[in-house]
Amino acid sequence: VSEHGVTDEFIENGEWILESFIADRHVHRNISGRPFPTIEYTVEISRRTLYYIYYVVAPSVLLAVLALLGFCMPSDSGEKLSLGITMLLALVVFMQLVTDRLPPISTSLPLIGKFFGGVIMCVTLSSAMTIFVLSLHFRGPNITPIPKWL
What we know:
By secondary structure, this protein is an alpha+beta fold. The protein is about 45% helix and about 20% strand. It has helices spanning about 50-70, 80-100, 110-140, and strands at about 15-30, 35-45. It has a two-stranded antiparallel ribbon. α1 runs antiparallel to α2, α1 (about 50-70) runs parallel beside α3 and α2 (about 80-100) runs antiparallel to α3 (about 110-140). The N and C termini lie far apart (about 80 Å).
């Protein structure tokens, strides 16, 4: 009996790589002392990464770069706020698509979730500061008091 399992009829998979397949044969004795064999299989597999790099990591990095490039635009251009809101929408939708493929775990956040959370916070703060700067720019030095009903 060989140490490795028989992989002659193994069919290659597009998502997983078979790293090793080990078969261990053990002989145990039951209560009456008669021997009986058992076989323990150890299967080691690893996930192929091309799919996740192409469809998850690369778009995430591109969205983050676009979000950071929004800081280069001047505040008084109306396109900075449009870019910020569009980026916020794109990030939330893409994060929803990615998290639908992840197992629901409440004990810890996956790294991609932390990444999206950080980029979303960055874009949100940028958009809020743009609104604040634009309100100061167009209001001028005349500050009106906030109404009491608000």
